[in-house]
Specification:
The structure holds two protein chains of two kinds.
Chain A: H1 7-11, H2 15-25, E1 31-32, H3 44-55, H4 68-82, E2 92-95, H5 97-109, E3 115-120, H6 126-132, E4 136-141, H7 151-157, E5 162-168, H8 180-192, E6 196-200, E7 225-230, E8 243-246, H9 249-262, H10 268-280, H11 282-305, E9 318-319, H12 330-341, E10 343-344, E11 346-347, E12 359-362, H13 367-384
Parallel strand pairs in A: 1-10, 3-4, 3-5, 5-6, 6-7
Antiparallel strand pairs in A: 2-8, 7-8, 9-12, 11-12
Helix pairs in contact in A: 3-10, 4-10, 5-6, 5-9
Chain B: H1 3-10, H2 16-23, H3 27-40, E1 62-70, H4 78-86, E2 91-96, E3 103-109, H5 112-123, E4 129-136, E5 142-143, E6 146-147
Antiparallel strand pairs in B: 1-3, 1-4, 2-3, 5-6
Helix pairs in contact in B: 2-3
Classes of the chains: A alpha/beta, B alpha+beta.
Chain lengths: 385, 162
């Protein structure tokens, strides 16, 4: 008997991207600019705190909401950095990375038929987890507006069924971010139509050209926003899987309900390490950020001079250059570049149909790797012209 | 610290062109700034960090850290006495420090003998040196921020991920 799989799951996007990923993973000696995580190892003082907690015998469950020490640390971090005041008891939840948090919030708020706005190109999970939660993702093509959601675009897509928007800035895959003024305009519209803002700001600490604005700091936004952040990107802690959600207590309580049945709690070792990251990690993240910044400047100049047009990204560690001048599709370009020069990038279409004509390049890779990749890309482009 | 210095401190071979791209400056500007730093002595020299444990010739070196106690003398500051000590070519580093002794002197020599005879015949005999304690270096783990392991366990990231 053939087991019938859930129709929602069956429908979820596997597509050509998966096949391309498998091709990359099966190839040796590839220079990969396709990696969505830092090339740094977690700073030693943070790793040491994790090791020490094991030595001390911290091997049990924690409270469902997460270690109080860590929630308090997050409370202080947000207070110092953004003057944001989230109550560690009722308004903060520790999750298995931001990924879990996003899944929780969508399941917590969606009723059948609810629509969730997802500006694209976007991180890959927003649509599928919306569908899993019984909602309908409404994709907004931002490619004509510099990959930013504008008030006009937003108004055009909101209707009575619109429940929330998933904002992500600095944005994976484009590196685009928003200044406070732009966010204020977006916030006004969301408040007007009572659309919840789900703000994925996991790259917030990696903003280079201006101060990052946390969405809940906008006028009257705090009660209409669930703010997400985590340790993966800025602290180079992807494998530890620690993120957090902050928001109105009713929503956090609903999310905690699901979390306690599905996850119970985040690994205590990881939570201990994350608590240390907030105490002593600041210097390390500044150092990493400076390093990313140098690479960002270099890559902007180099990619443009190769004829792959892109603007200087404001944050994260991604560039989203156009490959339209080559006449190839995103997938063709990526596949050929991999096969001919062993450089891996991610086709823009992985992040939504409107990513056609673009590729995502991650500069979370050593300077030597970036230089070598540029040499190979140049050779590739000269051949294909 | 200036970004240019930061980049050079990590990689003394970074080219002017690359530094210019990384800092959004003109190559000429970068060149001029580096020249200026060199002239002022802010950049003293460029050198490679070598893990001598991996070099298999017979000219291996012995290193010792020597604590030196000094008799404070009127009209003769530490600087003057330190100068008499650090001027010996055997001395590779020399620091004035707080605590139970005064100068920390790093001495390099071909073998144990050369180092000990330097201490016995040169250093201890100096008029203002009251006493020395010599610590021979057995193993180097980390030097100037560089971990001296030739084979670090590499944890490979997945080649492609969102």
């Amino acid at each position: 008997m053939k087991m019938e799989i859930s129709r929602v799951v069956e429908k979820m996007q596997p597509s050509g991207i998966r096949a391309f990923f498998d091709l990359v993973l099966g190839m040796k000696e590839v220079i990969s600019l396709g990696v969505g995580e830092p090339d740094f190892v977690t700073p030693w003082q943070i790793r040491e705190a994790g090791i020490y907690s094991l030595e001390q015998g911290f091997t049990c469950y924690t409270s469902n909401k997460g270690l109080y020490k860590l929630r308090l640390g997050i409370h202080r971090y947000l207070k110092n950095k953004f003057h944001l005041d989230y109550c560690p008891d009722e308004e903060i939840l520790i999750t298995v990375g931001v990924s879990e948090g996003l899944d929780l919030v969508l399941r917590a708020i969606i009723n059948p038929g609810d629509k969730i706005l997802v500006p694209q190109p976007s991180y890959v999970s927003y649509g599928p987890i919306t569908e899993l939660a019984g909602g309908t993702p409404v994709y907004i093509d931002t490619s004509k507006d510099g990959f930013k959601i504008t008030p006009k675009l937003l108004e055009k897509h909101i209707d009575k069924k619109t429940k929330a928007i998933v904002l992500n800035y600095p944005t994976n895959p484009t590196g685009v971010s928003y200044r406070r003024k732009e966010l204020e305009e977006i916030n006004k519209i969301l408040l007007k139509h009572k659309v919840l803002c789900i703000s994925d700001e996991v790259y917030g600490d990696l903003t280079y050209d201006f101060q990052h604005t946390a969405f809940p700091t906008l006028p009257k936004a705090k009660n209409n926003t669930v703010y997400f952040n985590g340790f993966s990107k800025a602290y180079a802690m992807t494998g530890w899987r620690v993120g957090f959600a902050c928001g109105p207590k009713e929503i956090i309580a609903a999310m905690t309900k699901i979390h306690q049945y599905t996850i119970m709690c985040v690994s205590i070792t990881s939570q201990m390490a994350a608590a240390e990251a907030l105490i002593s990690g600041k210097r390390s993240i500044e150092q990493m950020k400076r390093e990313y910044n140098c690479r960002r400047q270099l890559m902007t100049v180099e990619l443009n001079s190769l004829g792959l047009k892109c603007s200087r990204p404001a944050g994260a560690f991604y560039m989203f250059p156009s490959i339209k001048s080559t006449g190839l599709s995103s997938m063709e370009f990526s596949r050929k570049l991999l096969e001919e020069e062993k450089v891996a990038v991610v086709p823009g279409t992985a992040f939504g149909a409107c990513g056609e004509g673009y590729i995502r390049i991650s500069y979370a890779s050593s300077f030597e790797n970036l230089k070598e990749a540029l040499v190979r890309m140049k050779r590739f482009l000269e051949k294909s012209r | 610290m200036d970004e240019i210095l930061e980049i050079l401190e990590k990689d003394g071979r970074a080219s002017v062109e690359d530094i210019a791209k990384m800092t959004r400056k003109k190559p000429d500007e970068v060149k001029k700034a580096i020249k200026k730093y060199e002239k002022e002595g802010a950049i003293l020299k460029y050198k490679a960090v070598i893990n001598k444990d991996l070099i298999k010739d017979n000219e291996s070196e012995v290193r010792a850290l020597i604590e030196v106690n000094i008799v404070p003398q009127k009209d003769l500051g530490f600087d003057k006495i330190a100068e008499r000590i650090y001027s010996f070519p055997e001395v590779s580093s020399c620091y004035l420090i707080s605590g139970t002794f005064d100068l920390l002197v790093v001495v390099e020599g071909k073998n144990l003998n050369t180092v000990s005879s330097f201490v016995a015949e040169k250093l201890s005999c100096l008029e203002n040196v009251r006493g020395t304690t010599t610590h021979f270096l057995l193993k180097k783990y980390k030097e100037d921020g560089v971990i001296l392991k030739h084979k670090l366990n590499k944890n490979e990231r997945i080649a492609i991920s969102y």
